[in-house]
Amino acid sequence: MDRKTHWQAVYAGKQDDELSWYQADPQPSLDLILAASGGRGRVIDVGGGSSILVDRLLAARFEKVAVLDISVAAIERSKSRLGERAGQVEWIVADVTNGGDLGQFDVWHDRAAFHFLTDPAERKRYGRSVRKTLPAGGHLIIGTFAADGPEKCSGLEVCRYDARSLAGELGAGFELLRKLTEAHVTPWGKAQPFLYCVFRRSRTEYTRGT
Hints:
By secondary structure, this protein is α/β, with parallel strands linked by helices. It has a single domain (3-207), classed as Rossmann fold, CATH 3.40.50.150. It is 32% helix and 26% strand. The chain contains 7 helices and 9 strands. It has helices at residues 3-13, 27-37, 53-59, 72-82, 120-133, 163-170, 203-207; strands at residues 42-46, 64-69, 89-93, 107-111, 139-145, 152-153, 156-157, 174-185, 191-201. It has a 7-stranded mixed sheet, with helices on both faces. Strands 6-7 form a two-stranded antiparallel sheet. The relative contact order is 0.15.
């Protein structure tokens, strides 16, 4: 089963509170986005699925809010929940590793998408997408399973990270500003160690055009 088919089946077959990554309140992500952006600018939530983070971002009145996910079912669920407010969001159905033009954003947020990229070539393509999308001074926020987190999720192998290994995946041009850990508790009460890292896109690296 390819990635798109897998995630479409997951969201078509389960309710939000049946998904291990479900959060009733995505406060950690929102706090990091607000701190990085000062509450202004353009934000894209990569792998946002049916998360209610988009609801919070709209309430914060950012200049532009976008949600990218590979699953149409996930995005349609978010649209249905938002109702008329869904028209205020740019919805992108895509595989982030395919290298399409996503436009320009000041904050790239990804909670629990990057760690599913177990192929190094896909992680490199992900990095290229980030570089195309974030201008100099933009912020990249990634939440992944921590080094002591689960080895699998949704039946798929995952990669686990500490701050050093995550920074190494991104390569030159990203300055680590902040890291924090969170014990995410699944809807059935199991704790999963998460790592969040905040990076700033380097101005010097950007001006070299790399």
